[in-house]
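Figure 2 data, in text form.
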Amino acid sequence: MPVVPGREARRAAVRAAVAAALAGGAAALARGGGAPWSAALALAAGAAAFAAWRTVAGACAGFLAMLAAALAGLGSGGLGRLGAVVPALAGLELLGLASVGLVALVRQPRKVGRRLLGAWLASSGLVATGLALATREETRPLAGVLLSGGLAYRLGVVPAYAWAPMLLRHPARRVAGLGVLALAAAGVTLALVMARLPEPAAARWSLRALAAATLPWAAWQAVRQRGRDPACARTYAVVAAMSVVLLAAA
């Protein structure tokens, strides 16, 4: 398909606007939740990189910025009850890495999928930053928001490309089968985290907000894709159902 300069310029402008909005929102959320400026700015840089720099290198850069936010937000306290879910979070990380590798192997030519990698690393960055901020008493509500938001992102309960849904709708059966496992693992891990958050109120409100924003978007996509891509439509129907579950459970 030929590149239309005007269209590409408009897309670039939209990406820049979205990146600026996400960066500003991330910084405001972090500072409002009590995180130090260094962590807030690193989190904002990560959000901007994921939104504007849509390549494998951009996804890696965004993840590194979020790791910097996690290091800057690390406190002197422990994780408390959240320490019990670290093995589940680590297992989910291994599953995510395996899924990215499997999808790369079944592609022709073999290469890492930018969207899948970006969705995975963005959620990993949120989870890492949330865990780090959970070691500070004053940022524990914010930590719950980031942890629950990152895991909800993996389930697809965000109006954007997400990890488990992209696996579910993959044409290769073994990848789609892994997507079912991914959905179950992310859901169980989210439930474990929510049960152990020291201050879960903010996390519950954030999950409700994400589910309320995602439900109409996913339902519309399910209807829109029904004729042209039934597998994609079914995946959006699953995301809509997950949004309803989170609305009821949160």
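Caption note: The two ends are 45 Å apart (CA to CA).
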